[in-house]
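Suppose a colleague, Dr. K., hands you the sequence of a protein chain of 537 amino acids and asks what its three-dimensional shape might be. Before reaching for any lab equipment, you can write down a predicted structure in token form. Begin with the sequence itself:
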Amino acid sequence: MNYRGTSLYLYHPSSFGLTVAGFGESDVKSLIPENLLTTMSLAVLHSRALAGMDAPPVTVEAHLANGLPSFTIVGLPEAEVKEAKDRVRAALQNARFEFPARRITVNLAPADLPKESGRFDLPIALGILAASGQIPADKLGEYEFAGELALTGELRPVRGALAMTLGASRDRRGFILPQPNAAEAALVEDAIVYPARSLLQVCAHLAGRDSLARHTDKPIAAVDAHPDMLDVKGQAHAKRALEIAAAGGHSVIMVGPPGTGKTMLASRLPGILPPMTQAEALASAAIQSVGSAGFDVAHWKKRPYRAPHHTASAVALVGGGSNPRPGEISMAMHGVLFLDELPEFDRKVLEVLREPLESGRISVSRAARQAEFPAQFQLVAAMNPCPCGFLGHYSGRCHCTPDQVLRYRRKISGPLLDRIDIQIEVPAVPQEDLTRGAEGESSATIRERVMLAFERQLERQGKPNARLAAREIDRYCAPDEKGATLLKQAIGKLGLSARGYHRILKVARTIADLVAMETIKSAHVAEAIQYRRFDRG
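The predicted structure, expressed as tokens, is then:
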């Protein structure tokens, strides 16, 4: 400001004082009109942004100054945040607060972090109210705020509540957020969560008139209601393969004509998987929380089952966007990703699965942003043996030439197939099995064996067999002498890669765990070799 020819740098009186070189504080105040000193206000609040799986802190600074009335939001806001100006103005007016006819500047720091979604509506509105003196500002530093405002002043839910609560809990602040997000936020142990239904409730809490109640209820684990394996007629070999896959966390590909039950079998796999641990459930909920649909607490501790259509893009599978969001492989965290009609997917789309199948993580890099998402999913794929689907079918309806069959199967690369632990054929169901009543074991019976085998793995190595590293395979998956001899013969006859060799050992380890055997026998190795269908030609 230039007043009477003297350059003065004005700061908030309560924060920094008023001092200029050559002038004392009283001298400066004597040069500035009194109404100007009382009308410059600043309020600082805390909130969170979303960057991949992280929720970095954001400082919301609301500043009111003299000048023509205006409302500016700075700090790399995207369209949803820029639109907060209209939502906040209407919400304040409908809640019977005064919207200051001043020059309003809201800064979202740090300035180089992109800000998106409507979660900043609530802290922006509270910042304006505190800066204008309509609510006290002494308790703002104790909390973090997030919530989208309706024009009526009601609070609407936002995505990423779980990730934001984790950050607020680490910084030892309470978290005030919309009521519908409270159950999700309460999944974080020892988090201080205050749900609110409206802007007025939050203001009353900050003013000490009507305190918000802390949310302490914990969600109840969802009851699994998956289809029963007993519904699948015949296919004893495929059921056995899925039991092994469930016990060790192995990936599976099923090859067979249409109508043989491949999709039925895949949809029943979650029903025989062991229950989720607390850590697995929290990791799965956190990744779904930052997804587009958010996390529904009704699905707490329920293993996800994702089945994207074969027209899905590579970004849909692995995640991406200008602000990267998780894709299907991450949304299936600690659950099942089912890819039906595998050769119908674009080959470039399928190739993006190679890295996460091996590492359990996916790194999404864009020009401006990078993000890393966990991707510990169980892949189940299904495909036909030929373009028409009836190769080897007893009806003899297939008229595909060998060249057509070869081109069809080459849509799936060898390196991708090599990463799939269990490769089986699912033949057509004989007529006598179709007309017979339900036989075999229920999902509950199979799950009991799976849980026992899974517990043995956790006690021995602390992880499923499918996640064993090379050094751990040497330690935990060494077969006996006969088994080792059989495996050497298989390497020579089948031309196994080093990866295929390790996959057979891990599957054999799971087969031994299902029968409570510490030593891997030749029978276990032989069965594991039988599940490498593509290696056998």
